[in-house]
Design goal:
33% of the residues lie in helices and 25% in strands. It is of the alpha/beta class. The chain has two domains: 3-134, NAD(P)-binding Rossmann-like Domain (Rossmann fold, 3-Layer(aba) Sandwich), CATH 3.40.50.720; 139-291 and 293-328, Dihydrodipicolinate Reductase, domain 2, CATH 3.30.360.10.
Length: 383
């Protein structure tokens, strides 16, 4: 008989709601799941009645304002950590210490030291811990990884990775926690570059060394109204933005290839422009999140005048078959989190990690720390 896994979610903004939807849909896509999620409690202290809406829309049995009460609840097996960055370490360490499994959104900690604390707590408790690197769950990304590993495009020579967004492009947007180092740790590094770094290591190879430039294009913003999100207008006094809007890196990977990584949160005209290009000795491939279910491939041709052809993700790619019956039946962002939930549930049931884990979060955090060091000291840094 399928056993329940009792869930508590800390933080019920957009990402907390994504987690709740993913867990609620798990059996719809994975009817053979060894565990059935049960939404027991949600904790959020925002003044906009989020927890009441959570109970009404998702069926949470209890609504709390203090996360400490949630993580020590004996009726909870799994804690989703989806609040602001500054609570991730404290919530995750406490939850692991209480014997709870974890689903922690990135960045798991504000820096590598905090992420290492979470990892240590997870290993000491013997619990499972997933990290929200959802872009690696895209079926077309799975195909890209397999193509590179198969040698179909030859040995990788160089790659380009871009994560560009406009969510902070408005200079009148409020000075929310995302722009304060005490609360966010970093700016676009933790928010977007963590995803980009994980994709590079998952799809191509581990980082070897890098050199980085950072910039803050909007140095001041007006104070936020309490509870305001980063895209709302500021209304108070001007204050300093304490972290980076933009990152540009040159990198060398362990396989000997070179690459460029660029990310911005203030790029006017860019919405979720996330993707990569990989060039090898015999071909190339490219993926763009805005056309998530497509992979552009140049392979099996002569060295000159080669061209790309679009390959559509199909039932044989990744876990698409659990969502759609045929090729070019697209899946979406929320589906990626269902895949993440399935992998975490399998990890809990078997005791063996599946999918992106807290170890991957620490690997990404070390890359981000190296980027900060490189930018501050204007030098190449070896990982």
């Amino acid at each position: 008989m399928t056993q329940p896994v009792r869930v508590g979610i800390v933080g019920f903004g957009w990402m907390g709601q994504v987690h709740a939807r993913a867990l609620s849909r798990l059996l719809q896509h994975y009817p053979e799941s060894p565990l059935v999620p049960r939404l027991v409690a949600v904790a959020d202290n925002a003044p906009d009645h989020r927890t009441q809406r959570a109970a009404a829309a998702y069926g949470f049995e209890r609504q709390l304002t203090d996360w400490r009460e949630l993580v020590t609840d004996d009726e909870i097996d799994l804690v989703c950590v989806t609040g602001p960055n500054f609570i991730h370490r404290d919530v995750a360490v406490a939850a692991a210490g209480a014997g709870k499994h974890l689903w922690v959104e990135k960045p798991a900690g504000r820096n590598a030291a905090e992420t290492a604390e979470i990892l240590a707590a997870v290993e000491a408790a013997g619990v499972q811990a997933a990290t929200g690197f959802n872009y690696r769950n895209v079926p077309a990304v799975d195909r890209a990884r397999e193509i590179i590993a198969s040698g179909r495009i030859g040995d990788v020579e160089h790659s380009i990775v871009r994560f560009l967004a406009d969510y902070s492009a408005d200079p009148d947007a409020a000075l929310s926690w995302r722009f304060r180092s005490e609360f966010s740790g970093s700016g676009v590094l933790g928010d977007l570059v963590s995803h980009a770094a994980d994709l590079v290591q998952h799809v191509i190879a581990d980082f070897d060394e890098l050199v980085v430039d950072r910039a803050t294009f909007i140095p001041q913003r007006r104070a936020a109204i309490p509870g305001a999100m980063h895209y709302e207008k500021g209304a108070g006094d001007l204050g300093d933005v304490e972290n980076e809007d933009y990152v540009n890196a040159l990198y060398r990977l362990k396989d000997g290839s070179r690459g460029i990584l660029e990310s911005s949160r203030t790029a006017v005209g860019e919405q979720n422009t996330y993707g990569f290009e990989v060039h090898g000795t015999k071909g190339a491939l490219a993926w763009d999140f805005r056309r998530m279910n497509e992979l552009r491939v140049c392979a099996g041709q002569d060295y000159l005048n080669g061209f790309y052809a679009t390959e559509y993700a199909g039932p044989g790619d990744g876990e698409l078959s659990f969502f759609q019956p045929g090729t070019n039946n697209p899946i979406g962002f929320d589906d990626l989190k269902v895949i993440e939930a399935r992998r975490l549930v399998e990890s809990i049931a078997t005791g063996k990690p599946v999918g992106a884990t807290i170890h991957d979060a620490l690997a990404a955090a070390k890359i981000l720390d190296a980027m900060v060091l490189s930018s501050d000291e204007r030098k190449w840094v070896t990982l």
